[in-house]
Amino acid sequence: MSLHTLSIAELASGLQQKQFSATELARHFIARGEAHNGLLNAYITLTPERALADAALADARLARGEGGVLTGIPLAQKDIFCTDGIRTTCASRMLDGFVAPYDATVVERLAAAGTVLLGKTNMDEFAMGSSNETSYYGPVRNPWDTARVPGGSSGGSAAVVAARLAPVATGTDTGGSIRQPAALTGISGIKPTYGRVSRYGMIAFASSLDQAGIMAPSAEDCALLLEVMSGFDPRDSTSVDVPVPAYSKQLTPSVQGLRIGVVREFFEGGLDAANAALVKAALQVYVDQGAVLVDVSCPNMGLSVPTYYVVAPAECSSNLSRFDGVRFGHRCEQPKDLMDLYKRSRGEGFGAEVKRRIMTGTYLLSAGYYDAYYLKAQQVRQLISREFAAAFTQADVLVGPTSPTPAFPLGNQGDDPITMYLNDIYTIGANLAGLPAMSIPCGFLQGLPLGLQLIGPHFTESRLLATAHAYQQATDWHRRVPAAYV
Amino acid sequence: MAEYVKSATTGRDWEVVIGLEIHAQLATRTKIFSGSPTAYGAPPNSQANLVDLGYPGVLPVLNAEAVRMAIRFGLATGSTVARRSVFARKNYFYPDLPKGYQISQYEKPVVEHGSIDVLLDDGVIKTIGITRAHLEEDAGKSMHEGLGAFSGIDLNRAGTPLLEIVSEPDMRSAKEAVAYLKKIHTLVRYLEICDGNMQEGSFRCDANVSVRPVGQEKLGTRAELKNINSFRFVEKAIHFEVARQIELLESGGKVVQETRLYDSARDETRSMRSKEEANDYRYFPDPDLLPLVISDAEVEAVRASLPELPDEKAARFCRDHGLSVYDAGVLTSSRELAAYYEAVVVAAGGEPKLCANWVMGEIAGLLNRDNLEITAARVDATALVGLLRRIIDNTVSNKLAKEVLLAMWDEGRSADAVIEAKGLKQITDSGALEAVIRQVIEANPEQVAGYRGGKDKLFGFFVGQAMKASGGKANPGQLNDLLKRLLAG
């Protein structure tokens, strides 16, 4: 038995029963992180001292019999969440060395539950990217093939979980940033309903799309973490005051009678036949368990990528204005005057993809263009939301592939942003409509994992997790670990 | 009757068109999107938390009290209170704007389509339209003095709630603009939504000014005057700007649409930036804030809590107290002044006109002399009534009462104590008055003869002499009666 192959529930039980201590568990994962991070580059910051301190607290709580399920469970935080006293970089030179004086709500809630912080994971700069190659700290390597990307933007979180450097990691998903890397690294990841998890302390990319979620080997692991992260936060006006079910207690393994909507548009056009075959095979697993497949259509799904690439850059162009070299973050040397300070601080601090999106967004919001782009995009967004709503009158969950291809080689798509943007063609719709969606591993193509995507109506995380759990009771894709990390 | 400006050089008549944008800082305890206090004058950056500093990851949360204050203003101006309004981001870079955008309301403001009535000097009441009033956050302040080669930023003010009140271009003279500004100033203080302190910048205005030849329908090109922080400066800035525009147009030039800064030290306006140089603010709805939804119940709750408004109060003073429209207007110009006046009337048990005259005359004069607010008056309503009673019961004359008030004000004593100490009690004893009058008659035989010979005008001479001889203490009515009788011989 290796500690890093246990599920969260198994780890919790081991801790409660004193089979091992939180400190032993932390040391195990600290050692794995130190051993493998050099190659994978999945962590920007390792926090062994903090991990041991957290673990000591957890052990004390466990000794008093006060611990909960997550007490002593190690985790990695995506470096987009502010952590009091530990640097938060958002993988940007702009925030290299930035130490937030406060904890994000997600960080606060997970810490309060007794989790142990192993480190801050690498990501695309400001979460802008689908390969983790835009990070100022260099690309993350995919544990299944280190010449390939892990996907992005939560590529570091995906890699640490896939390589079992951490049992679980947080992620954020603006256009697929949890689901696509989960698919490309063979793990499970859920992006909950917009408003389900507080955005307070999560550095904003596109506020109306950003949503925090969780990445772990199994849906069950995700459920245990998500029920702690979720819930209304008065500090985030867009968080929703809807009670949080105990997701982990609602993982009924039966999908008998569940109507699974197969979204026609997901299988049209460019989807690789082998990829489609994997998804179809996964659907057969459900059919065998008594689910009913329903053919559904969202005719305007194809508009989701262009819509997203109006809304997201527009919001990011404004969200990133605060990085001006005045109060925090990178400031250029010896500015001549205010304009020079702005220009050089931002010019030096931001990478190419971030600049591209800021410029695109600035253009899109300019006088005379707003109606044609931003307003139109919001209208299309409404249209896509309505199509999803209509589909949900016929189906309980919608399914499709998570990504068009398995992990691609590092450096392969670097020069063509459009090709890169199309990686998120299947995931963006859920962000535009604010729907919960998750990716679970459903097989391999040429030795590389791929994911099955499940999308549900608003606030049906329980249903998604249970549906995923049912699949994982019948399959073991989620238990596969790359050979080098067993 | 419209007021035109006659050109000094051509004699041509020009019509002035003015609209005002007033920024009223709302008197909330905390900021509009954060929990920091809003108090003025704290050490730099001591009242700026992470939200005010625009730290990565922080989010705005709307202050419900600021919304209630906006609703109060909306209801008091007969405006529509939007059941759904939207906060937008106004994007521009400036060091005192921490997020790189100001959260403001743009397309959908919380208050729209209202008006207020303004009483002009000539007694005419003019209705000025209020286009909209919207909620927004204030910026911080840049500091350039005493920091060497650096500039400092104080973000204490950043995030202070503002209500921006935009008028229709309904004003036709600087005087009308000032009257409107004063009326809004009065109103926001009645509503207790703004302290109205112009020196501290909690009530400030920009003026949009244009001119057009009399008879022309199309509006002239306007200039926006910024940085006007007193009623007097509004008037002066507009006067300067109107003269500048007329001179420019008459010499064949064109007014360009631009923002101009009023420099009170030089009494002039200077170009800040032209329309071409203006920022493209790239407004879009703020995705961090949900649309502001206000229910009918909330509006009704606010309506129920509204105080008596200045116009209602003035109308009541006219109707119930028989005051003139002008007097009622003066007395209701601040809630505190009106309260003082009413306390005097209540304590005096009537005589509203006498009370009004004393409050507007002597009390206002002394406040002005000592540069005090009515709430700091050294003679309170009860003490003033103590004096008015002595006028009513003829203990002192109106004239001597002013002397008594002065002593009360400066020495903090009651009216009776001052009258007693100074021996200012009016002589109402007929015997004593008769003795005084007889002395005067004896001392002025020629005038007596003249008067008795038909020179009625000499009566005034005797009143003066007798009053003087009484040390000013003679009861004037009684004195008149006695003089007439005794002079008649």
Task: Provide an overview of this structure.
The complex is a heterodimer of chains A (486) and B (489). With 486 residues, chain A is of the alpha/beta class. Chain A contains 15 helices and 11 strands. Chain A has a domain of 273 residues: Amidase signature (AS) domain (Amidase signature (AS) enzymes), CATH 3.90.1300.10. In chain A, the strands form 2 sheets. An 8-stranded mixed sheet of chain A has the order 4-6-5-10-11-9-7-8, with helices on both faces. The longest helix of chain A has 21 residues. Chain B is α+β, with helices and mostly antiparallel strands and 489 residues long. Chain B has 3 domains: 297 residues, no CATH class; 115 residues, no CATH class; 58 residues, Arc Repressor Mutant, subunit A, CATH 1.10.10. Chain B is built from 15 helices and 17 strands. In chain B, helix 3 links the parallel strand 13 and strand 14. In chain B, helix 7 packs across helix 9 and helix 12 crosses helix 14. Chain B starts with a strand and ends with a helix. The relative contact order of chain B is 0.10. The model of chain B has no long low-confidence stretch (mean pLDDT 91). The interface between A and B is large, with 45 and 28 residues.
